[in-house]
Amino acid sequence: HIGLSRNEGIKAARGKYICFSDDDDDSTLDMYEKLYRKAEDCEADVVVSDFYRVKGDELCKFVFPAEMNHDLFRNESLLSLLKGEIYKENCVTIASNGVIWNHLIKTDFLKRHKIYFCDNRKCTFEDRLFLIQVYRNAKFVVHINECLYYHYCIKNSAGGKYTYHSYKLIISYLQRLKNYLIDQNMYQLYHKYYADSVLIFLFYAFRNETKHKCYKTLIQEIRKIRKNYMLQYELHSLVKDKGLSLLKEYSVWKCIYLIMIYGFIRTKSYSV
After folding, report:
1. Cα separation of 145 and 33, whole Å?
2. Which long-range contacts (CB under 8 A, 24 or more apart) does 33-40 make?
3. Residue 150 pairs with which residues in a beta bridge?
4. Bridging pattern class, strands 141-152 and 46-55
5. Of 133, 68, 71, nearest in space to 105 by CA
6. Residue 101: what pLDDT?
7. I need a surface site. Which of 52, 69, 161, 162 has the fewest CB within 10 A?
8. Which burial class, exposed, middle or buried, applies to 86 when counting CB atoms under 10 A from its CB (0-12, 13-18, 19+)?
9. For 81-104, what is each residue's pLDDT tens digit?
10. What is d(CA 110, CA 243) in angstroms, rounded to the nearest whole number?
């Protein structure tokens, strides 16, 4: 249970800073020294570096814009996390900032704001939920424009399993995120980004399901989504807000999927 074990680490931590690393990954020998020195020099709550993804013999870079000041970097990271943008390899984009293991974070910052990971048995994307809280509350975030971490894509890792991207856990993630936004009085301000994430992650789950389930089961899942008032409220808002511009913003397959899951229900009966 990734989230719960990391939470125990946060509770037990006595040092000034915390970093997280997967047991099958690697880093440069001086990664943590560089992150630490940057945090001390800048008095930052958070320091984040670029990273590599290793898949067999393939080495991909995930690089963030170097020209952003700390306020813009923090704000754009939060928006990207809320929208649900997926990591983009070998290009310079803030959309790659959705993983925890390239971050160094002040321990007292996490404990003061009560930021912990979700239980992976009940919800997925624990890094994303965690980082949304981090970037929401951090006063000062610094970026090191250097790849210091190596993330290895292992077939049997937790992130590669069917359940991690299942409809059940992804819908749980979407519900938890919405609850958090409402609790923090952020929902109205960031609603359009959240509505985007609903379509993006439901489509992500659908692609995962097509690899593991029969068509009969897929149809049953689509019917459940069409009857889910919370999801339909967000999809209705997305369609109403973007209209035909959806055809330009999303791939053909996402648009077809949206037609499949959009139930055209009376969303007025659903209250936020």
Report:
1. 15
2. 34/144, 34/146, 34/148, 35/104, 35/144, 35/148, 36/104, 38/142, 38/144, 39/104, 39/106, 39/142
3. 26, 52
4. parallel
5. 133
6. 95
7. 69
8. exposed
9. 999 988 888 889 999 899 999 999
10. 40
- In whole angstroms, give the CA distance from residue 242 to residue 161: 34
Residue 271 has a pLDDT of 52
Q: Coil, strand or helix: which one is 122?
A: coil
* pTM of the predicted protein model: 0.92
User: Structure tokens of 243?
Assistant: 């209209």
pLDDT tier at 244 (50, 70, 90 boundaries)? Answer: confident
Q: With bands split at pLDDT 50, 70 and 90, how would you rate the model's confidence at 165?
A: confident
Closest listed residue to residue 148, CA positions, set 9, 244, 38: 38
Over residues 49-63, mean pLDDT = 94
The token pair at 126 is: 């624990």
Number of helices followed by number of strands (H, E) in the chain: 11, 6
What lies within 8 Å, CB to CB, of 67 at 6+ separation is: none
Tell me the pLDDT tens digit for each residue of 109-150: 999 999 999 998 899 999 999 999 999 999 999 999 999 999
**What is the pLDDT confidence band of residue 200, given thresholds at 50, 70 and 90?**
very high
CA angle 42/148/112 to nearest 5° reads: 45
Burial of 39 (0-12, 13-18, 19+ CB in 10 A): buried
Q: Which two tokens stand for residue 246?
A: 């959806």
